Amino acid sequence: MTRSNTYKIGFLLFPGFPMACLTSMIEPLRAANEISKTETFEWVLVSEAREKVLASAGVSFEADIVLRSDLAVDCLILLAAPNSPFEAASTAGHLRGLARHGTTLGAVSGGVFPLTRSGVQVRDAISVHWCYAAAFEAEFPNTPTSDQVIEVSDTILTASGAAAAFDLSLQLIRTRLGEATATEVACWFQHPMMRTDDVRQSIPTISSVAKSEQSLPANVARVIDIYSAALSDPPRLSDVADAVGISPRQLERSFKKATGLNPSNYLRRMRMKAARQLVMYTNQSFTEIAEAVGYSSTSILKRYYTEVFGLSPREDRERINLFRVNGNVPVPAI
């Protein structure tokens, strides 16, 4: 193999990181090198301290090097659970230093949390997995986010999950080795399509009928978008119906046919999904969580939460704590 403008990527591993996100990025890069007969891509595993890092699946990885502010990489990707803490006080400073000196920073799945906590300037929207969206917005209300599978800018690379990490690697391959090589890599792994940064995440519906939001009728999907943007203070049904250009009665019928639920029950389920993210991935009080999803008391939250999930918010948080590792990191991560 020949060396051709080698692009070196570091993967900063935090305890509880999702292993699939790491392999989904490395394997396409390895294949690209083989197909092109070059060493275009190199990679190295990085940790805060030179020791083994346990992934969410219980598999340990030994880092090659320790994080420094002068780390010799072109790009550093953070892999973490959403609650991953900085084990070293210097970590945030090292990340900011790397960014100042031109290193491209990135994150996959829960890695967007420590990336943003580091204080690195985020000017462009970053991709946040739908199951972390409520928790991320609660912690970082001023950080721009998107529901695209990946987001690529000059300074920040983000992917929403493991499959999206594969797409992010394909983007890197396309940029450095061309469309043909990227397509061949995708075919090697039987990756069905190369998704770019204009493709939205597939989000499951709260429905016994439709499988994902992409399969819903346009007016129903629009209503869900309206509710998603205003869970704490949603508009009245009549106002929502006006916004999509149909009568409230038509909206009720369309919604029930498409999802199996009427709009008010669907909204309640959406609120519970958001509440559960806050229970699982933040340390917010139950009063704060109730307010965030539009309820005036914790008793209302508890009643609906228990109806949907079969246990109270407190019981759910205590159950999650049984599976947490040092630093209150939840396992598994996505």
From TrEMBL:
Looking up PROSITE patterns in the UniProt record yields: HTH_ARAC_FAMILY_1, HTH_ARAC_FAMILY_2
Q: Which residues form the HTH araC/xylS-type domain?
A: 221-319
PANTHER family per the UniProt record, alphabetical: HTH-TYPE TRANSCRIPTIONAL ACTIVATOR RHAS-RELATED
Give the record's keywords alphabetically.
DNA-binding, Signal, Transcription, Transcription regulation
Protein name, as recorded: Helix-turn-helix domain-containing protein
Q: Which molecular function GO terms apply here?
A: DNA-binding transcription factor activity; sequence-specific DNA binding
Q: What is the lineage of its organism?
A: Bacteria, Pseudomonadati, Pseudomonadota, Alphaproteobacteria, Rhodobacterales
Q: Residues of the signal sequence?
A: 1-20
Give the matching InterPro entries.
AraC_XylS_family_regulators, Class_I_gatase-like, Homeodomain-like_sf, HTH_AraC, HTH_AraC-typ_CS
Pfam name, any one: HTH_18
Q: Which domain of life is it from?
A: Bacteria
